# Entry
Amino acid sequence: MGDMRFLPKLFLALLLMLAQAGLHPAGAAEAIYQVTQTGIPVVEITAQFETRPDGYWMRSVSRAVGIGRLFAPHEIRSEVEGAWRAEGVAPRRFQAEGNWRGDARRTVMLYREGMPQPLELEPPEGATNEPVPLPARRGAIDGLSAFALMSRTVTQTGRCDLTGPIFDGRRRLDWSSRTIGSVRITHAGKEIESLQCGLESRLIAGVRIGDDPARATQPRPAMAWLAKVDPRLPPIPIRVEFPSTIFGTMRMELQRIK
# Structure
């Protein structure tokens, strides 16, 4: 199977996860995604979204399914809460927790004047990845906030032309999104209008210890189709495709909304 460590980089996306059940906003919608490789299900992602005039909230759970449990067993839960700004988004708190291939993971970050500040890291900084220099972190947001910004930009402009830095507590990436155009695609048995966007992410700092830096820092392309499929939500990805690191294409597709 492809190296699914790159799935969060490409859709960072798209989603991650954690919070007390009592914090679930009453107006949040829940979307269920399935990730397949050459048609075989390998990951399921459940995401919840809420946008307000002053900010946004997101939470999701990603878990390996089927043969994905053999190659990249994991269950990751994450949550972010932040505010809208004229220039984009301002995350306030990001938290991710779970396990990856049997190893416990936990990240808690607060944001102060444009600087993400890790409060908790398990494993500790430097144990699994090369440390990210402080200057490289300034101005970076988490992957969920990048997704919220993309959805808001599509709502306001009808386009998805964005670039920016992402820091997840261990890795610093550059990401970008560019508008390709409006296309009709088949979803849930019918044709719908969508906005096709080209995505790319590139690891800048925080290479995993033992990985080949040249390979780890190669650009990772993807293609996303966004559409407004629920009145409670802004346009969200209904399909994302990206090449596997071994063979074939991986696809993440919206299954249903609750």
Notes: The first strand starts at residue 29 and ends at 37. Residues 6-257 form one domain.
